[in-house]
Every structure is written in structure tokens, then in C-alpha cells.
Specification:
The complex is a heterodimer. Helix content of chain A is 39%, strand content 21%. By secondary structure, chain A is α/β, with parallel strands linked by helices. Chain A has a single domain, classed as 3-Layer(aba) Sandwich (Rossmann fold), CATH 3.40.50.1450. In chain A, strands 1, 2, 3, 4, 5 and 6 form a six-stranded mixed beta sheet that branches. In chain A, helix 2 crosses helix 4. Chain B has two domains: 85 residues; 336 residues, Cytochrome-c3 Hydrogenase, chain B. Helix content of chain B is 43%, strand content 21%. In chain B, the strands form five sheets. Chain B has a four-stranded antiparallel beta sheet, with helices on one face. Chain B has a three-stranded antiparallel beta sheet with strand order 6-7-8, with helices on one face. The chains are: A alpha/beta, B alpha+beta. At the A-B interface, helix 2 and helix 4 of A face helix 5 and helix 6 of B.
């Protein structure tokens, strides 16, 4: 199974760049995409990946600078509004997922990796805590990629469903 | 004496934060204000000292929904300062990519931002559960607009090919023909959209508008105009915007407010364009307007959703016609020597008149930039409309009053990022008997 990494964020708005830096460190290619702020365009990205697994990367508010949160996409839908505040694209990932589900569109299985930020002003530098977390986030994404792929193999062999909802 | 204060906070959206306040004494509105707390973004200052050729890329970042409007107004102004004249073939490509922007912007607003108000939903997500075909249509139309932008501009948002003098590369005929079927379907689906919008229940409100839009060509205004038409006042060259309109700070808002020089608020955007140029609509859109009995002067701001839908048809039909007659320009751009000068440019962004002025140094770097977006021009008019709406709000329940005020403000498609459902209403009932 293909595992796509989709990075959300903004280049010149402090910690909102975190996911983009992670994607660059992973190496942008067919499986690692920098989407920036796709808005409702994320729906099409998700639908086109419906047979794959995805890892959504984004900066989040509500957790400490440089902290990370890893959720299944289902958990993200449950906790996205009350538990986490994402950055300037305003819950784009959560709202897009929610809209896709409301429309009955097929969506991929996968995980959400959020990197806690505190600076989101235009032109602001990235927080030192966030900068220090990029390498850890890269390792985390690689681990999740591997986990998703290996679970996919198990699922295909044993006929299980949804390999992505019990990652913790 | 009885006095009630309605206050509406605009919050949660990073790019915009503000407050609507309405005070009514003895049944009369005595104060209404819309405060927009846009975070200072300093784009005009960023441009100082930058090369002429950097400007289109920088101003595109002002807005993710209407970057082309900023690029085109800037290019016009800079070409004016440099004495550059583009070719008719380049101008066709400009009109075509601008159609793409109108399509994606209008589709987003009609279906995703404004329709939930009319149908009684808190958001498009809620609406999608009951109106799946409607929301899918909106997403589909928006995607076709973005696709048109991508084919010409290199990517669906913040396109990179527009530049001073034209485009870094003009699209091939084959690339445009590949999306022709989508544009043709867009014409049909946007017609259905306008017919549907015309059936929506419209709150009753009539406003005495002064309409402002660019003019000076035989086409419905979009990517170019030589003059600014102000209803009941006359027409002035684009260069004289500052003589006719003034921007000023108001205490309750970080955004500048524009009015006519005598202090009169004015309206720009779809209703203003229709008022001045209904007879110039693409024949398909004009026939649609006739079918819907849509007059040139629409004085109910809520009805702007119908006007916007007719403009959606106009943009699709225009794009289709341009694609059908398109031949790739031999020259994608024209060039000229740098020189000192002052230039002005105005185009019609989806939400209204967008005016730029640049002073260039002898080496072509920007010495001074002035950008007047449509939302700041409409802000005073929004406040005037809230005054008109005030009496009917007082008679309504708290929640219904909130929705009605939100719906009115959204009628202007204000360019505050993520403008959906940003208002909270507090009613001070201390003095209500």
C-alpha cells in the first residue's frame, strides 16, 4: 500500500512552516507533497488517495511549542475542534475531512501528525522549540510510514480491516 | 428612554478580527460600526525598493482567493508607469485567467459561504449532509476555475506566470482545449446555479446605493478599465481615484475606510458592475439575467447571491468563447526600458474594484506603492446597511438577529480569510424596559 505524506502550512508565518520543513527533510517526491494551504482542494487530494494511506502533517495550536501529537484521522475528527486548534488555515484538515465524510466521499485511512506552535504572525521566525522538533518529527513520520506499510501487509495477509485506527 | 446595544464580535479567524456594534435608542439607530482588525501586513512597505519584476509575485500573496486581481492591477499600473503597451493576444490571456479567478471565487462564496445562510445551516459541512448535490456542484465549479488558473498560471492558486508585460509563458491551444468540456459544463451548471439562487428566500432590505465600478471598454469590466464610474456622479480616469475617493482611518477599525470625497459611502462589486454594465454581460449571462428578471439596479444586498451567480455564468461563457478563438500569442510578454514614473491600474476583483498606484525610481525599483482593496471600499457601505437593518434586528430573537447580521455582511463577500460564521452577538438589555 502506498503511504502519502501531505504537508500543510505557510512558509513565512513562524511555526506554521513546521510541516513544510518536515516534508522537505523527508524529500519531496511522488509520495511526499507540500500542499501549503489547499483549502477545499484538500478534499480532492484525500479522495485521490482513498485507496492509499496518508499522513497529514500540520502545525497545531493548543499544545506546547515543539510538542507533537499523533492521532488517527478518526481521532482527529473527534478532537479537532474542541481539543486542538490548527494554524492559519483554520482547521483545514479537520474541516476537509468532515466535509468529505458529510458528502459520502471515499477518504483514505491514515494518521495526523501535529507539531505544536506558538508563533503564527506573518514574517515571524520559527520558535526555537519548533525548530528543534523538526528532526524528531521526521523520525516520527518515517516510523509511521513503516508502521502503516507493515500493517498493510498484515492486513492483506490476514484480511483485517482498517490498519490505522490503533496506532497509539 | 430605552437603549439597546447589539455588539457582534468577529473572531477566530487569523487574518481578520473585528466587531460589529449597533446602538438603538428609542427605536432609532444612533450608532453602527464594523471594526475590522486585520493584522498589519505591510505589503506596500514590502514593495519599496523591490524590482518592478518582483511586484506581481509579491502582491499575489495578499490574497489566496483573488491573487490574480492583485497581479493584474499591479501589472496595469507598472506598465502605465513604464509606458508599456501589451498586445490584444496577451490581453485575451489576461481576461481568460481572470475568468478563472471569478469562477473559483464566486463558486466558493455562493455555495460554501453564503448558501448556508439562506438554507439555515451553520456551515457548508452541515449543509452537505442534506444538500450533497448542491455542495458537490460548488466544489466542482470551483475546481474548474482553479484548473483554468493552473493551465495558464502554472498552479491553481498564487499563479506564477503573470508578469509585467504579460505572461512568462502563454498556454498552448491544446492545454486549453483539454479543459474546454469543463468550461462548457460550467456554463450549464452555473445557469442552474443562478436559477436556484433566484428561488432562495430573500430578507427584505432596500438600500440607496452609490455604485462604483471600472469602465471604459466595450466589455463587462474584469481585467481592464480606463475610468471609474460612480452612479449619479460621473466618470473619472483611473488616475484620479484619489480625487474622487478618499481613504481614512476610523477609530474603531484597523482597516482604512474609503468613501467618496464628500463622505458618501459607496458600493463596489457584483451589484455595482451589474448596475453600470448589465448590457455588456456575455449574451448567455444577459439572457439568464432577463430570464430571472434581474434588473440592472439591485438594491437588496442579500440578492447579491443571484448577481454573483449570473457573473459566474458570465465568466464561464467568456472563458469558453476565448478558448474557442484562442491562438497562442507569438509574444507572451512585452518588455521595455526601466524609467522613473508614476502609474495607476484598476481591475475588478471578484468582490470589487481594486486600485493600485506605483512610483518608480529611474532603475525601475518601487519607490512607493498604494493598494486599495475592495473590502476597505465597501466597509463604510456595510456599516450604512447595518444601520438600515438595525430596526428589524431589534424586533428579532437573539440568534435570528445574529444570523441576519452575519448574512448581510457576507453578502459583500468580504475578503477576510475564512469569512464564514465569524460573528457572535451580545445584546445588552440593561435599559430595555
Amino acid at each position: 500500500m502506498r503511504v502519502r505524506v501531505l504537508a500543510l502550512g505557510t512558509e513565512h508565518m513562524g511555526d506554521d512552516r513546521a510541516a513544510l520543513d518536515v516534508a522537505r527533510a523527508l524529500g519531496v517526491n511522488n509520495d511526499v507533497s507540500i500542499l501549503g494551504r489547499p483549502g477545499v482542494g484538500l478534499l480532492d487530494e484525500l479522495e485521490s488517495s482513498a485507496d492509499d494511506a496518508v499522513i497529514l502533517l500540520d502545525a497545531v495550536r493548543g499544545i506546547g511549542a515543539g510538542s507533537m501529537v499523533v492521532l488517527s484521522l478518526d481521532e482527529l475528527l473527534e478532537r479537532g475542534v474542541t481539543g486542538l486548534k490548527t494554524s492559519s488555515h483554520e482547521l483545514a484538515a479537520v474541516e476537509s475531512l468532515r466535509l468529505a465524510r458529510a458528502l459520502g466521499r471515499r477518504t483514505p485511512r491514515g494518521m495526523f501528525v501535529g507539531i505544536g506552535g506558538v508563533r503564527f504572525a506573518p514574517g515571524a521566525p520559527m520558535s526555537p522549540e519548533v525548530s528543534a522538533t523538526i528532526a524528531k518529527a521526521v523520525d516520527m513520520v518515517r516510523m509511521i510510514q513503516q508502521e502503516l506499510r507493515s500493517r498493510s501487509v498484515i492486513v492483506e495477509r490476514e484480511g483485517k480491516e482498517d490498519p490505522c485506527t490503533n496506532m497509539d | 428612554m430605552s437603549e439597546r446595544t447589539f455588539s457582534v464580535d468577529l473572531m477566530t479567524r487569523v487574518e481578520g478580527e473585528g466587531r460589529f456594534s449597533l446602538t438603538v435608542r428609542d427605536g432609532k439607530v444612533i450608532d453602527a460600526s464594523l471594526a475590522i482588525f486585520e493584522a498589519p501586513r505591510f505589503f506596500e512597505a514590502f514593495l519599496q525598493g523591490r524590482s518592478t519584476h518582483d511586484v506581481c509575485d509579491i502582491v499575489a500573496r495578499i490574497c489566496g482567493i483573488c491573487p490574480i486581481a492583485y497581479q493584474m492591477s499591479a501589472a496595469r499600473a507598472l506598465e502605465s508607469a513604464l509606458g508599456l503597451r501589451t498586445t490584444p493576444e496577451i490581453e485575451q490571456v489576461r481576461r481568460l485567467i481572470y475568468c478563472g479567478e471569478w469562477i473559483e471565487s464566486h463558486a466558493l462564496h455562493v455555495f460554501m459561504l453564503h448558501a448556508p445562510d439562506f438554507l439555515g445551516y451553520e456551515s457548508a459541512i452541515e449543509m452537505a449532509r442534506d444538500h450533497k448535490p448542491l455542495v458537490e456542484r460548488g466544489l466542482r465549479l470551483k475546481k474548474w476555475g482553479n484548473r483554468l488558473i493552473e493551465v495558464i498560471g502554472g498552479r491553481p492558486s498564487h499563479p506564477v506566470s503573470p508578469r509585467v508585460g504579460g505572461f512568462s509563458r502563454a498556454p498552448s491551444k491544446a492545454a486549453l482545449l483539454a479543459i474546454r468540456d469543463d468550461l462548457a459544463r460550467g456554463v450549464e451548471e452555473s445557469i442552474e446555479t443562478a436559477r436556484w439562487a433566484a428561488t432562495l428566500p430573500m430578507p427584505d432590505l432596500s438600500c440607496d446605493y452609490v455604485f462604483a465600478a471600472i469602465t471604459g471598454t466595450s466589455d463587462y469590466p474584469l481585467e481592464f478599465g480606463t475610468h471609474i464610474a460612480v452612479s449619479g456622479r460621473g466618470e473619472w480616469p483611473v488616475e484620479q481615484w484619489g480625487d474622487v475617493m478618499v481613504e481614512r482611518h476610523v477609530r474603531h477599525s484597523n482597516a482604512l475606510q474609503a468613501t467618496l470625497a464628500d463622505g458618501t459611502p459607496y458600493l463596489c462589486g457584483p451589484q455595482a458592475r451589474l448596475h453600470h454594465h448589465r448590457d455588456k454581460l456575455n449574451p448567455v449571462a444577459r439572457q439568464l439575467a432577463d430570464e430571472l428578471s434581474l434588473p440592472a439596479t439591485v438594491d437588496n444586498p442579500y440578492r447579491s447571491i443571484v448577481v454573483r451567480a449570473v457573473e459566474l455564468t458570465h465568466a464561464f461563457a467568456e472563458a469558453l468563447a476565448i478558448v474557442d478563438r484562442y491562438e497562442r500569442p507569438e509574444q507572451a510578454y512585452v518588455e521595455g526600458a526601466m524609467r522613473a514614473g508614476v502609474g495607476y491600474g484598476a481591475t475588478e476583483a471578484p468582490r470589487g474594484l481594486l486600485w493600485h498606484r506605483y512610483e518608480l525610481s529611474a532603475d525601475g525599483t518601487v519607490a512607493k506603492a498604494t493598494i486599495v482593496p475592495p473590502t476597505s471600499q465597501n466597509q463604510a457601505r456595510i456599516e450604512a446597511d447595518l444601520v438600515a437593518l438595525g430596526p428589524s434586528l431589534i424586533a428579532m430573537e437573539h440568534k435570528a438577529a445574529t444570523v441576519r447580521a452575519e448574512q448581510l455582511i457576507r453578502s459583500y463577500d468580504p475578503c477576510i480569510s475564512c469569512a464564514t460564521h465569524f460573528l457572535e452577538l451580545e445584546i445588552n438589555r440593561e435599559d430595555v424596559p
